[in-house]
Each structure stands twice: as structure tokens, then as C-alpha cells.
Design goal:
By secondary structure, the chain is α/β, with parallel strands linked by helices. It has a single domain, classed as Rossmann fold (3-Layer(aba) Sandwich), CATH 3.40.50.1010. The longest helix is centred in the N-terminal third of the chain and has 17 residues.
Length: 310
Amino acid sequence: MLVLLDSASLYFRAFFGVPDTIRAPDGTPVNAVRGFTEMVAYVIELAKPTRLVACLDLDWRPAFRVQALPAYKAHRLAPDGKMEIVPPALELQVPILLEVLRAAGITRAGADGYEADDVIGALCARERTDPVEVVSGDRDLFQVVRDEPTAVRVRYIGRGLAKATLYGPAELAQRYGLPASRAGDAYVDLAVLRGDPSDGLPGVAGVGEKTAATVVSRFGSFEELMAALDDPGDRRLSGGVRAKLAAAREYLAVAPGVVRAAVDAPVALSGPDRLPPVPDDPEELAALGQRWGIAGAVRRLAEALAAAAR
């Protein structure tokens, strides 16, 4: 199995879920580092993958998405209008947790100008050997689920890793009322119509999740839906819904390209994605554990690597 970690999703949850009283001997906050390391260990213990990649945001607000939809994540901009608002105590911990991953021998992946969603989407799209499990608290990644040519599932951690739900096409279809035959693509269409305030995606005014799911289920693709909008005789669209979609035509022309993962993203991996049976640099990993006061977490990570290899 190949496991793909939506790293930022995990470490943001670790930062807000682990008390900020967790600090290194020198007083540096390490709650996100410890929580993230334990989460990675837990995922390895649970899934016992043979391959694992920690996927990174190298651009949290890609230019191509902003050009299409200027509102995209605009509410998260810092006063400088460029950087994302990130708690300073978390920002200083990200380089530390990346050092932990490197010493452990866990592959990192990113793509210049793209988000982790795009990295994950691209890696899923190209996988033809092993089943894939994506670990994330971002519902946008539901779009990658599939059964063929290799199964892709999303372990959704919106309520925490211990209460995570595993979604495949069948589960996604049941949860949102979508056609199972194209559940991943249909979820993109639903997200476009419904919108997502957390990403600055307005959606179609007056169209909620249930209405969006009903509309999406009547069509085989978003393109078919747009063609129906241009055909007054197509009775799959009621007068009210047609009017709402028509009023949002400009938004509907660009939104799918914002929501869909860029599966052609130029992903670069730090090395082979095989999960090592032992840390690449056990001395450095132990030293990081001592320096940052997370010896127990890095020990658990090393033990998880060994257990997965057995």
C-alpha cells in the first residue's frame, strides 16, 4: 500500500489539538512537532504501508487558481497581501518536523507553484501498482477516490485521527447522494455548486449541498450540466435552479479548474517512496528527540517503521 499524507492538514491539527504547554528543554513550543510525529506513527501502525510520502504545500495559494478566482483563500492573507496567516508558534515548528521526517527516512514530495492537494492528485493519478490511502482533513481530496486501475481511499480526519472515516466511491456516494460510478468527479461538481467558504469559493447563490447533489446526479459530467444550461428544453434542470446557475455562469466557467487537483503537477520526491524498516539516520533522529524533548514520539515512529516491515 502507498500512503499519502496531507502534511499541512496533519500538522495544523496537531498544533491546535496538542496543548501549547508542550515545549522543548529550551522553551521552544513543539506541540505540533510531537503531535505530527505521533500521528505519522499512528498511520504507519494502522495501515502498515510499504510506501509512504509526506506531501507538502510549496505554494498555498497558486497563481493559476488566484488568476481564475481572485477570492481564492484571500481571507487567509496576511497584511502584506502575500503570505498566509500562520501562528508564529506553528511556523517555527514546520522546519523541525521536516527534519524529523528526513532523519526517519520518510519521503517528502512537493511541486513548485502547487498545493499538497495537487501533489496528492498527481501521485494518485499516476499510481498503477499499489492501492493508495490518502490521509487528510481536507474534503476537497474526496475527488481522488476510485476503484480502478488501483483503489484510492481517503482517510478523512476531520473529527480527529482516532475517529477517522475511510471513504471510497461507495462511501462517498452514500454520504453525499452522488453516483458511485463517478463519485470522485461528482464530488468536484458538488463542491463547485455548493461552494466552500474556507477556500473563498462562493458557490452558486441559493444552491446548498442537497440541491447540488441532486443536480450533479442527473448528469454524467460537469460539461454535460453546462450544456443543459444552454438548452432551454433540457428538463433535468428546473426553472429555479436554471436561473440560479445562469446567474453564476461566469463563476461556473472557472470554478472547476480551481477545485480540481492539478494531476499534471511536476511533483518532485526527495527519494524513493519505500517505507524504511529503520530510520535513515537513527542517531540524528534520536538527537532531534533529545534536543526538542520529543524522545517518546520519535521512538514510537521508529518502532512503527520496524513493525510495518515485519
